[in-house]
């Protein structure tokens, strides 16, 4: 009889969670690398977008310093590594933020020469950090797709051939 009283307490202390939904039980590991002319790109949000038949869940990850994203699937507040098998459009999003040295507190106080130098540095920075055409950020226009099967999937997407430079 004591065991029956202790069982709920034991479950509470162990932090047991409800079982995972069926959608999150069978996921295939997916690792995506994002590069520009073979050079890894850090800080890219990689989103796998699928057709409505897969259900209402999301699969995404952020690239690390090596340009690598290990895709996670989220459903109902739970997240697990991997993706449900199927065909996906690969959407890539990256915000380019100007470094503080290119954002003067009082631009109006700069001399004409200083403004021209700042303008040139800003143009150079934006040219070097370009590459993320709006086509990558929309499932309808992205040139990238991936087919995920039962085996782990590793793929690299290089944006170089799709950018104007």
**Spatial strand arrangement across the major sheet:** 7-6-4-3-8-9
SS content category: alpha+beta
Largest beta-sheet characterization: 6 strands, antiparallel
The proportion of residues in beta strands is: 25-35%
Structure annotation, total helices: 3
If you average the pLDDT, what whole number results? 80
H/E series, N to C?
HHEEEEEEEEHEE
Q: Residue share in helices? A: 10-25%
| Structure summary, number of beta strands | 10
| pLDDT < 50 stretches | 1-18
- Shape descriptor reads elongated
**What is the CA-atom radius of gyration, in angstroms?**
23 Å
Distance between the termini: 76 Å
Question: How would you describe this protein?
Answer:
This protein is α+β, with helices and mostly antiparallel strands and 165 residues long. 21% of the residues lie in helices and 29% in strands. The chain has 3 helices and 10 strands; from the N terminus they run H-H-E-E-E-E-E-E-E-E-H-E-E. The protein has a 6-stranded antiparallel beta sheet with strand order 7-6-4-3-8-9, with no helix packed on it. Strands 1, 2, 5 and 10 form a 4-stranded mixed beta sheet that branches. The longest helix has 17 residues. The protein is elongated.
């Amino acid at each position: 009889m004591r065991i029956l009283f202790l069982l709920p307490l034991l479950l509470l202390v162990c932090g047991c969670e409800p079982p995972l939904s069926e959608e999150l039980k069978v996921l295939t590991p997916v690792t995506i690398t994002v590069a520009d002319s073979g050079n890894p790109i850090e800080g890219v949000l990689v989103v796998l977008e699928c057709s409505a038949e897969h259900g209402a869940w999301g699969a995404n990850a952020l690239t690390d310093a090596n340009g690598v994203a290990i895709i996670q699937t989220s459903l109902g507040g739970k997240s697990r590594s991997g993706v449900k098998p199927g065909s996906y459009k690969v959407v890539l999003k990256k915000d380019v933020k100007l470094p503080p040295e290119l954002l003067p507190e009082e631009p109006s106080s700069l001399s004409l020469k200083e403004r021209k130098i700042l303008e040139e540095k800003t143009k150079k920075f934006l040219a070097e950090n370009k590459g993320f055409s709006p086509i990558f950020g929309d499932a309808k226009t992205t040139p990238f797709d991936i087919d995920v099967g039962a085996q782990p999937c590793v793929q690299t997407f290089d944006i170089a051939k799709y950018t104007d430079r």
